[in-house]
Amino acid sequence: MTHRQFRTRRKRIPPGPRGWEVTQFFGNGDFAKTLDFLTRQAREHGPILSFRLLGRRMYVLDDPALVRDVLVVKQHAFARATGAALLREIVGTSVLTAEEPLHRARRRMLQPAFGRAQLATYGAVMAEEARIARDALAPGDVVDVGDAMTRLTLAVTGRTLFGADVGEHATAMSAALARAMADVSRLGPLLEVLPPWAGAVRRRLPLPSNRTFARARRELGAIVASVVARRRADERENDLLALALAARDDDGSRFDDRALADELATLLLAGHETTATALCWTWYVLASHPRVEAALHAELDAVLGARDPEPDDVARLPYTSAVFAETLRLYPSASAFGRRALERCELGGYTIEAGACIVISPYVIHRNPRYFPEPETFRPERFLGEGRPEFAYLPFGGGARRCIGEAFARMEGVLAIATLARRLRFERLDPLPVAIGTATLRPARPIRVRVCERSPRVDCSSAG
Ligand code: HEM
Fold first, then answer.
1. pLDDT tens per residue across span 232-281
2. Average pLDDT, stretch 307-319?
3. Ligand 1 site, residue 397, Cβ cutoff 6 A
4. Collapsing DSSP states into helix, strand and coil, what is residue 254?
5. Are 437 and 31 in contact (CB under 8 A)?
6. Which atom of ligand 1 is nearest to the CA of 332?
7. Are 282 and 417 in contact (CB under 8 A)?
8. What are the pLDDT digits (tens) for 53-74?
9. Mean pLDDT over all residues of the chain?
10. Contacts (Cβ under 8 Å, ≥6 apart) of 82
11. H helices of 305-441, where?
12. Which of 457, 450, 379 has its CA nearest to residue 422?
């Protein structure tokens, strides 16, 4: 009996890659290779596989029931992984980076800002900004579609978070965030694997990148503080900041300035690049799948006719919603997130030791042929028929830490696709496939497109 069989029979350590194979985890600095490595390993060893990396044991899950165990059933045995600790250095202590019980308190205070009534208000801003973005594009223009989508989602997040009067700060804040994030994301796939103290140690080293980071962090803090101060003096707006200013904890306490600044920076960070990336890939796949594009146009023409979409139309556009859902399946903006075991526990029949790192990768799980036949094929129809087990599809995570902006992002995505595709098409200038570049699934190179006009085929009997 080999050593490996022995370990498997006793079910103490799950199977997984060995020795030199594990070095592929680093992908030579190419994040697409890291994701491909994890996907191959999951197909070979799943539903739970394990390996040692830099002295830490990692577990990768490829099974909806095991994911549910970690995110819901046994959530108290797990904390966010190192990535959250590094993010805390950028955005401070917020709903994204805090652990319990602070996380729950912050989430409860923010929740009203993401309620149904509020979403309708945000939806009107999303529809208007999508029209502005579309009308800025003229047929024949050549654009980087990723840039265009980032401008759109930044405008939406800026206005919905801070209101029209201070929305312009979003651009300056986003630039400071991007500089700080670029520094942290250089760690690539190591982000989730390093021990929690690693970020703090690295930050104290006298590296030039640390000085840039500190400057970006100061800039960010100063901008948010000035926005908050201005708004405390004038609470008339009906945006997320107004709701956050009025929010009270169970014991009646309010957000102090520091906490509010950290939450706003977090929402800006978590809320705009994720959606922009998903939209960028949407235009990429649409440009390469004429059949899907034609079906999308048919739905838009039948439901909207000669008018632009409004927030209420989202529920009437199932195919458009399916296009966005299928894009998030193949290109989930949060490609992988981690959990750290706080105590020894059991998972799938294996003992997980305290301190181990659990990797949950929507990118890997969304490519499981058991739930998504021909997983590499872009087919929005998957989302029109029967459902699938909970956690087989999880672009927004799950459990107590499920994305607070999920409904926001879905509405923004569908309104943007419908508004632009109603009148325009994008043709790719470079037909070669574009790979994934970063952990947040930015494309490895800009996706340049030519803007083309589309004449909607309006059926007057059904047009609104
Ligand atoms: C397509 C767009 C988006 C994707 C794919 C996405 C994905 C995710 C995922 C996977 C998580 C959970 C991570 C984990 O469990 O460790 C998360 C959390 C979070 N997201 Fe999103 N997100 C998107 C848009 C947004 C938007 C628009 C906002 C806000 C305006 C937002 C705010 C947050 C926050 C605050 C959390 C932390 C929630 C908590 O810990 O309680 N996200 N997101």
1. 777 666 778 888 888 888 788 888 888 888 888 888 888 888 999 999 99
2. 97
3. yes
4. strand
5. yes
6. 5
7. yes
8. 877 889 999 999 999 999 999 9
9. 85
10. 191, 192, 193, 194, 195, 196, 198, 199, 338, 340, 357
11. 318-330, 362-365, 406-423
12. 457
Query: Which residues fall within 8 angstroms of residue 211, CB to CB, at 6 or more apart?
Result: none
Record the tokens describing residue 131, joined without a space: 């029209």
CB of 395 closer than 6 angstroms to any ligand 1 atom? yes
Q: Identify the bridge partners of residue 250 per DSSP, sorted by sequence position.
A: none
Percent helix, percent strand, percent coil in the chain, to nearest 5: 55, 10, 35
Residues in the chain: 464
> β-strand 56-61 against 357-360: which pairing, if any?
parallel
Ligand 1 atom with the smallest distance to the CA of 266 is 35
pLDDT for the residue 185: 64
3-state secondary structure of 448: strand
Which of 403, 406, 411 to probe ligand 1 with, by most ligand atoms within 8 A of CB? 403
CA 106–ligand 1 middle distance (angstroms): 14
**73 DSSP 8-state letter:** I
Rounded to an integer, what distance in angstroms lies between the CA atom of residue 134 and that of residue 262? 32
DSSP 106-149: HHHHHGGGGSHHHHHHHHHHHHHHHHHHHHT--TT-EEEHHHHH
